[in-house]
Design goal:
6-stranded antiparallel β-sheet, alpha+beta, 2 domains, two-stranded antiparallel ribbon, 33% helix
Length: 215
């Protein structure tokens, strides 16, 4: 496993844990266990088939975005591009749609958050990042307003279990709004909300593209 992915995993997991679970004991840490990490790059067909519907968030903690097909090919093979490889800021790709190409799961570490390889359609831009660095491309659109608002209320609560009355109420509001969407967007959002209902909360990582970046 390359230092690129391992370092990214540790840094992003620590960022995610700090943002979401700042009140948790400090022992919850991406490198808190001495056991050797076990990792493998795999396909994630259920995500890949959704197509180019993700955005890389413009965040100060965002991972490097590599430019060029040659760098993409290296990332696919889990090879670290050279230090001189061209990279750009996420600010410059906010209008670029990305697709999840691969996923890397790590066992033997405290957090174990999955890391995703995302790429633009022409493979000009690519990056390894966690779900906290990604977002559904159309989440902030006018059509999604009444779906996003109740989901954000759930995401901003410490306990996101749908068994809680306020979360269940907001989930139902999001579902009602989703049914007013059209075409492929309607299918995707409803499918995602059904997955959220199955998971029972937003704390189940790596299963739902719609809630990537919400927490």
């Amino acid at each position: 496993m390359t230092n690129l992915i391992l370092g990214l995993l540790e840094r992003n997991c620590q960022i995610y844990l700090h943002k979401k679970f700042d009140s948790f004991p400090k022992s919850v840490n991406a490198a808190s266990t001495s056991s050797a990490p076990v990792a493998a790059v795999k396909n994630k067909a259920s995500f890949t088939k959704e197509g180019y519907i993700m955005r890389i968030l413009n965040d100060k903690d965002a991972s490097k975005i590599y430019v060029g097909k040659s760098n993409y090919k290296k990332l696919v093979k889990n090879i670290t591009p050279s230090k001189k490889a061209k990279t750009i800021s996420p600010k410059k790709v906010q209008k670029v749609k990305f697709r999840i190409e691969k996923v890397l799961n790590v066992k033997g570490r405290g957090a174990g958050a999955p890391v995703y390889l995302v790429a633009s359609k022409d493979k000009k831009y690519s990056s390894w990042t966690t779900q906290s660095g990604l977002q559904y491309y159309y989440l902030n659109s006018k059509a999604m307003k009444n779906v996003k608002k109740p989901l954000m209320r759930i995401a901003n609560r410490l306990n996101t279990s749908l068994k809680k009355a306020n979360n269940k109420r907001d989930f139902n509001a999001a579902m009602k709004a989703a049914k007013k969407l059209h075409g492929n967007q309607r299918k995707f959002v409803l499918r995602s909300l059904k997955q959220l209902k199955k998971d029972g909360s937003m704390n189940v990582g790596g299963t739902n593209l719609l809630i990537f970046g919400l927490q």
